[in-house]
């Protein structure tokens, strides 16, 4: 009996985390805690969990930060600190893009959404955290989570002064992401 239960647990794989703790350094210093919405966007929540569990987000910068709108990060291909930041925001992971998981969840302060290109089915690894409500995003982007603690850290993230919110100079970065239950 115990062997079959163990085999089932091993075949089922690791439990999906219900959230992330993101340690941030730069102008903003501290921890941002997110709840992931596995019931609303299961594939996107699983992607964030997978990449975070592999350490893919560690040392990735907040490359696009628009005051009064959002802070974007998660380019695990070109957004690592120490790389040429001119390409930050143009990459993703080595995993395939995800189909949109649009919902009736609204983009409000602290909402976590998945970044994408013009194609709705192009989200991969990048995500953004809202500084303020953005009703024009409702139903157009996948809502994957919500900040539950650390909005003061989000509010302190270095703003972009470049074109389209690009952060010039030394952007703030994710130091480490830890999975939470």
Distance between the termini: 27 Å
User: CATH superfamily, called what?
Assistant: Cyclophilin-like
Total helices: the number is: 3
CATH topology category name = Cyclophilin
Uncertain parts: 1-15
CATH first level: which class? Mainly Beta
Give the class from helix and strand content and strand pairing: alpha+beta
Number of domains: 1
Sheet of most strands: 8 strands, antiparallel
- State the share of residues found in helices, binned by percent: 10-25%
Overall mean confidence score, pLDDT: 91
Total strand segments: 8
Protein name: Peptidyl-prolyl cis-trans isomerase
EC number: 5.2.1.8
Family: Belongs to the cyclophilin-type PPIase family.
GO biological process, one term: protein folding
Your description of this structure?
It is a single chain. The protein is built from 3 helices and 8 strands, in the order αββαβββββαβ. By secondary structure, it is of the alpha+beta class. The longest helix has 12 residues, at 42-53. The chain has a single domain, classed as Cyclophilin-like (Cyclophilin, Beta Barrel), CATH 2.40.100. The radius of gyration is 16 Å and the shape is globular. Residues 19-181 form the PPIase cyclophilin-type domain. One of its GO terms (biological process) is protein folding. PPIases accelerate the folding of proteins. It catalyzes the cis-trans isomerization of proline imidic peptide bonds in oligopeptides. This is Peptidyl-prolyl cis-trans isomerase.
């Amino acid at each position: 009996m115990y062997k079959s239960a163990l085999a089932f647990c091993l075949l089922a794989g690791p439990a999906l985390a219900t959230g992330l703790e993101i340690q941030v350094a730069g102008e903003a210093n501290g921890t941002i805690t997110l709840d992931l919405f596995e019931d609303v966007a299961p594939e996107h929540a699983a992607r964030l969990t997978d990449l975070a569990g592999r350490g893919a987000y560690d040392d990735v910068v907040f490359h696009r930060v628009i005051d009064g709108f959002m802070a974007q990060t998660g380019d695990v291909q070109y957004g690592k600190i120490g790389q040429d930041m001119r390409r930050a925001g143009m990459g993703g992971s080595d995993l395939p893009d995800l189909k949109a998981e649009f919902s009736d969840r609204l983009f409000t302060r602290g909402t976590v959404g998945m970044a994408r290109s013009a194609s709705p089915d192009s989200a991969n690894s990048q995500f953004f955290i809202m500084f303020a409500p953005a009703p024009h995003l409702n139903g157009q982007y996948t809502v994957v989570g919500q900040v539950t603690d650390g909005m003061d850290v989000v509010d302190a993230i270095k703003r972009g002064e470049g074109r389209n919110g690009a952060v010039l100079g030394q952007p703030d970065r994710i130091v480490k992401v830890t999975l939470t239950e």
